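Protein modeling request. Please complete all fields; requests missing the sequence field cannot be processed.
Requester role: graduate student
Desired output: 3D structure, token encoding
Chains: 1
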Amino acid sequence: MSTCPQYIVDYMHEYLDGDISREHEQQLKKHLQVCSDCQQHMHELSDTIAFVKSAAHITAPPHFEEMVMKRLPKHKNRVGVQRWFRQHPIIVAAAVFFLFMSATLLSSYPTDEFSFTAKPNLIVDGQTVIVPEGEVVEGDIVVKNGDIVIEGEVKGNVTVINGQYMASTSVVTGQIEEIDQVFEWLWYEIKDTANDFMALFEK
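Delivered output (203 residues):
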């Protein structure tokens, strides 16, 4: 069969799928009359399909799920978990704090409302914030649910949430960040909150 053309095998699959044309079926039958290897391969394919079809009708015995559930190991005693909580109070407190902080931040996840950091020299065209050529903007710019085009210079960070950053000959002295997913936005908010918190101690 290794010397037989590949299209013969393709015709076998077409035949078994019921998608073969009359012309291909005639060519396949002529070939099978003279090639014993292909006859054997065709029988093997037919047997496999018959087995799969018969296996599809197998059903689980009655009460099978109930018997499996009974044989599963029992839950461990909750005392061990409570003991672990008592031995690691700082980790538990940090996890609870992170959970509440994440929930609070997620509740303020930006919706479809367009907003941006108000700065002089910025031009707004629909939902696109533009830093014109030759203009210098001092400080960070955050654009939510919109795009930013920088043709001039920004002396700070540029953050775009659910939008696009577009620039050609721009100069940005800080970091450029595009945030499209909830978890990226959450991480951005956590970093921003942490930076604000640290700034209180630097004063």
